[in-house]
Amino acid sequence: MDKRWFKVFAGILVALAMGSCVYDFTPDADDLQGLDKPLVVIEGDIIVGGITNVKLGYSRSVLSGIENEEIDYTGTSVWVESEKGEVWNGRVVGGVTSSSYSPSNEMEIDTRDLPIDGRYRLCVSVPGRGEYRSAFKQPCVSPQIDTISFSFTKDGKGIQFEVSTHNDSPEPLYCKWSFVEDWESNAALTPSLRSLNKEGSIVFQELTPEEKHSMTRCFSKGSSKDIYIAGTEKLSQNIIHNERLNTVAGTDRRISSLYAITITQTALDKEAFKYWEGVKASISGTGGLFAPMPNEVRGNIVCDTYPDENVLGYINVSTATTKRRMVEANEVQLYRRSCTETAYPDSVWMELHNAGNIPVRYGEDEKGNINKNEVYWTSAECADCRTFSNSTRPDFWPKGR
Question: 159-174, pLDDT tens digit by residue?
Fold first, then answer.
């Protein structure tokens, strides 16, 4: 987040200095106001009929040679306000998925009972900085997601997920998407042993069925990071067909067993769409000569205390629709496991143990009898999925798996 917003506002300074190809430009103090300080970043949309999630961050200062300070959001309060003066207060939520935020920087507001015919804005009060408010907006109604599909990439080495939706209204449709990914991240091999260092010698213990299960059946979670938007203004119909959202390589563990993508779709008005279109072009650097310049990418949040302060972010007001698609590994047939187990004599067991390797099983002689002087070992990544999982089993996961 910091790097992306830094690029946008570094571009602002460049655009100010190079906006004219004929005249020299020397920025004065007013032009540089606020560029020597971290800028407040407010992320989140007001979700009518759902939970509004707000994340607070900060950009780095644009001017070089300035020591970057962090914005302390401790004690921050957030709420949604209607044009009639009604207030829905938020609360701090714990547990974060990004190292860019501390628990006090994430808020949620229960906006499930907001009337659809109202006009709403987001308000954030930051101690020592002031109060920030978005513009009042009428909610946009998000249509249902028609389908979530996947197709193979052109090189056949990955899959890409696509979303389709439509609107029967004659007005152009603008949509923004985010998604959450869940997947089984299972171990390739099932260990039967654990190794212990007892007084300088390696001894083995049999694992219980519960221990085996905890080491081999795990779950992981991820979420979208990029900006996904599309509109129908230039189309003959209000149909968004197979808009690509996410690509997963065939070597990615996410498609090794069972994968789920849950997509949230929110409708935008034209102003919000143009904002995100400009931000996306500025961040990607591929907007072309006639793309909106970074200094045109302005959000709808202002600081009441310091009206001239630049604030990063745009607060949309919309209903939201969600849909989930699950994909089995055998539908894709791309992921190939490369884990192996190798038999080693007792002379190297201590070295393997100290390196974090895991014993899988005892060897056997030609008659099938267990040979405890020979043990098959593998890497921790191959036999203990807890080394790479980051989540618990989702509530919606199919039973019996």
Answer: 999 999 999 988 999 9
